[in-house]
Amino acid sequence: MEEKTVYNMPGYSWNINEKKYQDFYRQSIKDSDLFWETQAKQLVQWKKSWTKVQNWDFYTGTIRWYEEATLNVSENCLDRHLQKRADKIAIIWEPDNPDEPTRIIRYAELHRQVCKCASVLSDLGVRKGDRVCIYLPMIPEAAVCMLACARIGAIHSVVFGGFSPESLAGRINDSKSKILITADQGLRGGRYIPLKANADKACHQTPSIEKVLVVQRGKQDINWVAGRDVWYHEQMEKASDMYDAVEMDAEDPLFILYTSGSTGKPKGIVHSSGGYLVYTACTFKYVFDYREDDVYWCTADVGWITGHSYIVYGPLSTGATVLMFEGVPTYPDASRFWHVVDKHRVSVFYTAPTAIRALIARGNEFVTCTDRSSLRVLGTVGEPINPEAWEWYYRIVGKQRCPVIDTWWQTETGGIMITSLPGAMNMKPGSASLPFFGNVPAIVDDKGNVLQGEANGNLVLTRSWPGQMRSIYGDHERYVKMYFSTYPGNYFTGDGARRDKDGFYWITGRVDDVINVSGHRIGTAEVESALVLHESVAEAAVVGCPHEIKGQGIYAYVTLCDGYEPSDELQQTLRGVVRKEIGGLAVPDVIQWANALPKTRSGKIMRRILRKIAANEVESLGDISTLADSTVVEKLIIQKKQQK
Ligand code: 6R9
């Protein structure tokens, strides 16, 4: 691959320059204990200090940081700011509809609400270690509820509002959540999302749920289950605004967040309290070149890890002003992001390549009609950013004044792992650049040999970092198998990567059966399981295909049972099945009928070939001689042409 243009940084006094990055990085590797001890002391307030900074073993999957230390995460995000920042704005909430009023919540007020909410949850029977499921839209109450759980020491499990009742139920049952917090409805791009109705459906199958706490967002009529459902605002009104934060062990779980893997059902990623907070605070501070007067906006949903780490825990523990946006980039029109930037003088903006591509498609006028002079740093996350999108973001949105920070990380890593830092390094469009302090990535070949210098292969991390996930909820064995058994002694990311002559990393995408659709992870196995639920489907194979806006689309090959004929109607039915089982985000873009699927003699579906056909790369199918029946491939190509 040819190297792209390298941009020098515009002149500005950044917190970290090239030399500082080099020195700091070297120190962080040479004396990792010292580095992470210093960060922990500077960034987090502890009740009790540690006896050992790090204690981990990648063979057994034992990860411990700040042993025996204690703290409370909500206290770190709230109480300790009250002396200096009580009147500082913690959350600016921008509603879906620009005509609705903005909500401004200052640190003192956020503290009061979180204490009240902790009282409410406690009155409902929530105790330290209990699981609380949060299924809310992008409203400040989502952050309030997360922090209230942290205050009690309860473990939250946030489920993205776009997931179906079935998905929600699956996550509630896996975590055995006691309480479900939802809203009467969500609102996105002018459309209502029936969250309470979904929650009701889910609760038919969730024996662990004792109470459903309902936040009022709209005015729609909703179904009410007496004895189970409780209005949030009614409870909050009478709740005490004093709630002593519970002392937690650094290793006590802070939350569970479900994410898709290459096999089976979504896994509950477990994050710690102490290490996670140190890591999110530290990355937030350096990656976004944080300043006290910044207005910081991350456009992710709190239902994803980016929302957890870089809307709630990283920024609030740092005492930042965070903008929280309920809507979508294109509503009421494609200027919305930039109007919001101007309205609140946003200085740091963090979004996903898919949003950038969607906006490019609408034309530059939607951007150039706004001012955007407040912007200082632009960030991206979620998937590889194509150089065209990078250029547009840099030139059109940032007017070549703002560095574009490409941050690579995962739900499992808790925080940013490989990234550019503003002012500290040159930028190469499309490259996530260099490791963050303390991290040592490596590239290995399929046999696990570590490749030196310029290399292309599988991305692993060779040592632990405080934000690393600690386990898969209820299944530590699966954790060890998924992450530590492929390349023993290393954490396997599931991503492919290339390292160039300057040591810059270029993430090439997933090397497992996970598809990245608009920055959201979807397991092909999950979509296949949903499709075969329908009586007409004999077999289904799902692969990713290139998609102009989403990055990857979902391409499903479906073999029908005898007695069923392909039809547009049946396609719609099957799409509906996936929507119901998983949610709208997993609905296939293409369903191709297939008489048969390409299989090896041992019966394994050859997805490599299916991916090529889906991507229209049939000239480079590679070796198909191991197929049980190689005529299947030819038939699929013909069927694809006919179906168009
Ligand atoms: C934070 C988040 C993780 C997967 C990851 C990789 C892809 C994320 C990226 C990127 C290239 C970047 N990914 N950031 N690929 N460049 N800057 O997105 O977590 O939802 O768990 O997804 O996303 O493939 O493995 P998650």
TrEMBL record:
It holds the Pfam family AMP-binding. Its EC number is 6.2.1.1. Residues 526-604 form the AMP-binding enzyme C-terminal domain. Keywords: ATP-binding, Ligase, Nucleotide-binding. It comes from the Eukaryota. Residues 21-77 form the Acetyl-coenzyme A synthetase N-terminal domain. This is acetate--CoA ligase.
